[in-house]
Amino acid sequence: MALGPIPARLTAIIPVSLSLSLSLSLSLSLSLTCILQIKSIVLTLIDKLNVPVGYSIC
Q1: pTM for this model (two decimals)
Q2: Per the UniProt record, which residue ranges are transmembrane (predicted)?
């Protein structure tokens, strides 16, 4: 009878942790694409300005 509440807690925790990990991975992928877009924009700007310092960033 002592084992009763533990599986109930597990079944409550599992969907919450799954949704949390899903939202975390979504936000991570979104931030990664944003960073890549910003980097490409910055690189094109540096390319247009012909700043040699910018190539050390790559």
Answers
A1: 0.47
A2: 12-36
